[in-house]
Specification:
By secondary structure, the chain is mostly helical. The chain has a single domain, classed as Amino acid/polyamine transporter I (Up-down Bundle). About 70% of the residues lie in helices and about 5% in strands. It has 15 helices and four strands. The strands form two sheets. It has a two-stranded antiparallel ribbon with strand order 1-2. Strands 3-4 form a two-stranded antiparallel sheet. β3 and β4 form a beta hairpin. It is globular and about 65 Å long. It holds the Pfam family Aa_trans. One of its GO terms (molecular function) is symporter activity. Its main location: membrane.
């Protein structure tokens, strides 16, 4: 009898230990075995705002000038509505099959695979990672232009506006690349929150400075000539140029709303209570509303300030070099913001290759071993040889391509056209239809397909316009010898 009781006691102790272990395990890990997520609506909003408000905001005055008051304002509103709606569709696909209790899909590609199958997953991955790489190239170009702008504003201040202050952007791109090599060693999205928060504050800072400078220019009576339909045929441009510019303007505005490719990775940082899809919808709504308000102010006030001759980059246009110190601050804010945005867009690219390598070589020290760096008894940082090597090579390639193609507006339009339709509209709509089994030919199915078609046509027009613009720029500039 005693032996049986001892056995029961021992078994009970084992069960108790197992229960306590499970409880501790549940406290430290999520349902997919990964460390407990701590993201909230505010951290997600910071990530999204960092991704949305980027270099695209600087070209909105130019875009509004091409489309005019009617077309410019309407396009901004329509793009914001479409982006907000499709972001909500995407949020519901994070877990499959149930949006609250289903299995997690950690990346955009996993969502597409779970809902649309392997072939669509491959197509999505091709577009997504090409677009993400293009985004960081665009951000490298824009950040270097802002650095040159600081140099130019001080040159104009010291020597006068009659002096030709032209500088190569190459040294600035190289310097930015070296800094990004260092930041690229931040392991994942979960540890990027502080950088995204700083970048989001910077984005508000330079947007407000741009808006303030535009208001000052308008109040001084020095505003440019504006029209309901934008630049005028026969006055500003030829009819062909007007058409090409309108197409590129659509691409610029699409670029300003191109953030869907990182939404799933951002959603994967959220804690599971309340449900991730509800928190993500709220974060997307807050972010899209906030950024659209800034976009409207930057686009409309910038257009009112410069008129039909609005520059491609509002803060580096003629007339914005005084007060030089304020312009310098704005451009420094842009650089800091884009340094953070670079990492937000690069993280999915980093993660994809590293996950693939870890799956294929699970026992490799080079791929998997983490080396801690301690200060005292506390581990401050860990580095990994694959992460160090691969991310450094990626940054070098991005910097080299940016130096070869420094054409601001045309690059933005091309990136916008490349990513907007497939990643912001097509895949979210297709996944929503498949997940909710919406009947083919029903009213809702027809409306979703109409949205799909219209956005495809807009992206196609923007792509054609941007390719034409890039070809013109290539004809008049030499790679690696561009000066601003």
């Amino acid at each position: 009898m005693r032996g049986r009781k001892d056995e029961e006691f021992q078994q009970g102790g084992i069960d108790s230990l197992a229960t306590n272990y499970k409880f501790a395990d549940d406290e430290e890990f999520d349902d997919d075995g990964k460390p407990k997520r701590t993201g909230t609506v505010w951290t997600a909003s910071a990530h999204i705002i960092t991704a949305i408000i980027g270099s695209g905001v600087l070209s909105l005055a130019w875009g509004t000038a091409q489309l005019g008051w009617i077309g410019g304002v309407a396009t901004l509103v329509i793009f914001s509505i479409i982006t907000g709606y499709t972001s909500n569709l995407l949020a519901d696909c994070y877990r499959s099959p149930d949006p609250v209790t289903g299995k997690r899909n950690h990346t955009y590609m996993e969502e597409v695979r779970a809902n649309l199958g392997r072939l669509n997953c491959i197509a999505c991955g091709t577009v997504q990672y090409a677009n993400l790489t293009g985004m960081v190239i665009g951000y490298t170009i824009t950040a270097s232009i802002s650095m040159v702008a600081v140099h130019k504003s001080n040159c104009f201040h010291e020597k006068g506006h009659a002096v030709s202050c032209m500088f190569s952007s190459n040294p600035y791109m190289i310097g930015l690349g070296l800094f990004e090599v260092f930041l690229s060693q931040i392991p994942n999205f979960h540890q990027l929150t502080w950088l995204s928060s700083v970048a989001a504050v910077m984005s508000f800072g330079y947007s407000l400075i741009g808006i303030g400078l535009a208001i000052a220019k308008i109040a001084s009576g020095d505003g440019g000539r504006t029209t309901l339909t934008g630049i005028e045929v026969g006055v500003d441009v030829t009819s062909a140029d007007k058409t090409w510019r309108m197409f590129r303007a659509l691409g610029d505005i699409a670029f300003a709303y191109s953030f869907s490719q990182v939404l799933v990775e951002i959603q994967d940082t959220l804690k599971s209570n309340p449900p991730e899809n509800k928190v993500m919808k709220k974060a997307s709504t807050i972010s899209v509303f906030t950024t659209t308000s800034f976009y409207m102010m930057c686009g409309c006030l910038g257009y009112a300030a410069f008129g039909n001759s609005a520059p491609g980059n509002m803060l580096t246009g003629f007339g914005f070099y005084e007060p030089f110190w304020l312009v310098d601050i704005a451009n420094i804010f842009i650089v800091i913001h884009l340094v953070g945005a670079y990492q937000v867009f690069a993280q999915p690219v980093y993660h994809k290759l590293e996950s693939w390598a870890s799956e294929n070589w699970p026992n490799s020290t080079f791929v998997n071993k983490e080396y801690p760096i301690k200060i005292g008894s506390k581990i401050m940082y860990t580095f990994n040889m694959l992460r160090l090597t691969w991310r450094t090579i990626f940054v070098i390639l991005v910097t080299t391509l940016a130096m070869a193609m420094p054409f601001f507006n045309d690059i933005l339009a091309f990136l916008g056209s490349l990513g907007f339709w497939p990643l912001t509209v097509y895949f979210p709509v297709r996944m929503y239809i498949a997940k909710n089994k919406i009947k083919r030919g029903s009213m809702k199915w027809c409306m979703l397909q109409l949205l799909n078609l219209l956005c495809f046509l807009v992206s196609l027009a923007a792509a054609v316009g941007s390719i034409q613009g890039v070809s013109q720029s290539l004809g008049s500039s030499k790679p690696f010898q561009f000066k601003v």
